[in-house]
Amino acid sequence: MISAEDFLREHGVAGACAAEAPEPATPHAHASSAARSGNKHRDGEGRHAKGRHDAVRVRRGSGFGYTLTEAPQDEDACKEAALRLLDAAARSTGGLRGKLAERGYEPQVIDAVIDRLVELRLLDDEEYARMVVRGCVGRMMGMRGTVMELTRKGVDRAVARSVVQEAAEQGVFDEAAWELGRSVAHKARACGVEVQRRRFWSAGGRKGHDPQVLREVAHALFVAGMDDE
User: How far apart are the C-alpha atoms of 179 and 198, rounded to whole Å?
Assistant: First the structure.
């Protein structure tokens, strides 16, 4: 992460700030001022020259997240950018399309690159969705929460629903709900059953579980336990 000092130096602000504190007049003051002015002029020329050849950094959130291309219609450059993004992390076609659009490539160029990557099997939304589902189940998420996570990551809603339904038929989300219940019961073991049950319902809702499954788990793990006290 770039420091504040580096950021100020890079954007030429440090020199401007320093100029706010006038130095005592000396025999060399005018010469030093002229030298600084000349250096500043040359630095400005260097920055402008660099800007003509390099991509432009764009602020995103709290930092510089990506660069804008100077060749938005260059399919080869777009393909290189896509491959770098895929090398960094697996992505859906929608997620990759959004990243390339952020970098300024033309929509028709992006479509051509994505079509080629799909043809080469470097992009596969169904396989990507199954990988995300496994991650969601590991985080004890429910069916609804997993669909939302997939669409957030750029997977087409129809593909997301199909893959999630396939997983649901294998019982993975029911098991995730039971695992969530056991986790809450363990973490809140020092609390009363009512507190445990309330925390379980809260966590189950946030993670997008089916309310009917939550009721079954809550009755087995919490309400039944209350009768034993």
Answer: 16
- 207 touches 180 (CB < 8 A): yes
Each residue's pLDDT tens digit, 26-54: 444 444 444 444 444 444 444 433 333 33
CA atoms within a 13 Å half-sphere pointing along the CA-CB vector of 198: 5
SS3 content of the chain, % helix, strand, coil (to 5): 70, 5, 25
Q: Which residues pair with 58 in a beta bridge?
A: 66
Partnered with residue 56 across adjacent β-strands are 68
Give the list of residues 6+ apart from residue 210 with CB closer than 8 angstroms, or none: 142, 143, 144, 173, 177
Using a 10 angstrom Cβ sphere, with 0-12 exposed, 13-18 middle and 19 or more buried, the burial of residue 189 is exposed
Tokens 């596969």 correspond to what residue? 124
| CA separation for the pair 84, 86 (Å, rounded) | 5
As a whole-number percent, the residues of the chain with pLDDT over 70 amount to 69
What single string gives the DSSP state of each residue in 112-164? HHHHHHHHTTS--HHHHHHHHHHHHHHTT--HHHHHHHHHHTT--HHHHHHHH
pLDDT computed for residue 226 by the predictor:
52
Taking 50 as the threshold, does the pLDDT of residue 221 lie above it?
yes
pLDDT tens per residue, range 108-118: 999 999 999 99
Q: Give kind and range of the element (H or E) at residue 75.
A: helix 75-88
Q: Full-prediction pTM beyond 0.70?
A: no
